[in-house]
């Protein structure tokens, strides 16, 4: 019987670049410190911090950070709810200099 690692963050393979390590480290620091005070009120699965960790690990600090910011914006009052996974790959039109295009990923049509 294989042992399944328990944990709240994504455990898939990702490149350990300095930006990704910094970003995932900040998310983990938030999870260990402030998350307990704010409460478990995320309307999505995975939670916003789990989403941020995976988005940064998969897509880097810049694109993953923007994906995370837009996800937190969707989580507020009047926002979306349900399952909203991080995309495995991003379309080539989603270039670094146009982060506003990332806001359409996830949300209502993808729950």
Compile the SSE list and pairings:
Blueprint: H1 18-32, H2 35-38, E1 44-45, H3 48-74, E2 82-83
Parallel strand pairs: 1-2
Helix pairs in contact: 1-3
Notes on the structure:
The structure is a single chain. The protein is mainly alpha-helical. The chain is 41% helix and 4% strand. It contains three helices and two strands, in the order ααβαβ. It has helices spanning 18-32, 35-38, 48-74; strands at 44-45, 82-83. α1 packs across α3 (48-74). The N and C termini lie far apart (33 Å). Keywords: Cell membrane, Membrane. It comes from Hoeflea algicola. Could be involved in insertion of integral membrane proteins into the membrane.
What descriptive keywords fit this protein?
111 residues; 3 helices; mainly alpha
Q: Can you tell me the overall shape?
A: globular
The largest beta-sheet arranges its strands as 1-2
Report on the biggest sheet: 2 strands, parallel
Give the terminus-to-terminus CA distance. 33 Å
**How many helical stretches?**
3
In short:
By secondary structure, this protein is mainly α. The protein has helices spanning 18-32, 35-38, 48-74, and strands at 44-45, 82-83.
């Amino acid at each position: 019987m294989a042992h399944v690692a328990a944990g709240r963050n994504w455990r898939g393979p990702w490149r350990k670049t300095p930006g990704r390590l910094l970003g995932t480290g900040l998310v983990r620091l938030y999870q260990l410190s402030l998350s307990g005070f704010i409460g478990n009120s995320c309307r999505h699965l995975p939670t916003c911090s789990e989403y941020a960790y995976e988005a940064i690990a998969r897509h880097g600090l810049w694109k993953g950070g923007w994906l995370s910011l837009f996800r937190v914006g969707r989580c507020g009052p009047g926002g979306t709810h349900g399952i909203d996974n991080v995309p495995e790959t991003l379309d080539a039109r989603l270039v670094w200099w146009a982060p506003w295009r990332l806001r359409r990923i996830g949300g209502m049509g993808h729950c």
